[in-house]
Amino acid sequence: MEKYFYHVVTEKPMYVGQHIVFDENHHNGVWQRVNEKIDIVCDIYNNPKKYKDIELEHHTSVALRELTLEQVRVEKYPNYPSRMACLYVSKTLEEAEKWFDYFVSLGRPTFQIVKLQVNGNMFYGDAENCFDGKLSEKENLILAEKYWKNEDFNESSIIEMLVDGDIEVVEIVKG
């Protein structure tokens, strides 16, 4: 089923007619950054005491989170897009504008807002349930289940939308 969403472009500018595909063979930048940390994640889970007094580097914490989120998604929510093979989008232009302004405030290179036609799966959730990875695999699994269950979603939630499949840029809205 085709749907329309908005995306804040931060990596490099997009163009009308551009197609992006995300599936089990086409991944996003999160996948690459996470896979660079596989060895340390395995070491943390196998030797947690070694890390108990060490502050985890940001990308290591992200890898602990994302690998656990992917494990729970595959096991219990296989129809949702993988966070490592998706595009993060907004349902409305107003939401996209807020993300655009937020990225600019962080100093992140922010180029455009584009309107997309999506033929794929989607997940609409609360970004506040996205957690910092912990040393405990069990704790990460509990937090990952909470993220995908999405039970606490309400009007004040910070909306996070993931889409996969065939994605086409149909309009440059801003930029």
Short structural summary:
With 175 residues, this protein is an alpha+beta fold. The protein has helices at residues 29-35, 38-46, 48-51, 58-76, 93-105, 137-149, and strands at 2-9, 19-22, 87-89, 112-119, 122-126, 159-163, 165-174. Helices cover 37% and strands 25% of the residues.
Please, could you describe this protein's structure?
With 175 residues, the protein is an alpha+beta fold. The protein has a single domain (2-174), classed as ADP-ribosylation fold (Alpha-Beta Barrel). Helix content is 37%, strand content 25%. It contains six helices and seven strands. The strands form two sheets. The protein has a four-stranded antiparallel β-sheet with strand order 1-4-7-2. Strands 3-6-5 form a three-stranded antiparallel β-sheet, with no helix packed on it. Helix 1 packs across helix 4 (58-76) and helix 4 crosses helix 6 (137-149). The two termini are 28 Å apart. 28% of the residues are buried.
How do the helices and strands line up, and which of them pair or pack?
Layout: E1 2-9, E2 19-22, H1 29-35, H2 38-46, H3 48-51, H4 58-76, E3 87-89, H5 93-105, E4 112-119, E5 122-126, H6 137-149, E6 159-163, E7 165-174
Helix pairs in contact: 1-4, 4-6
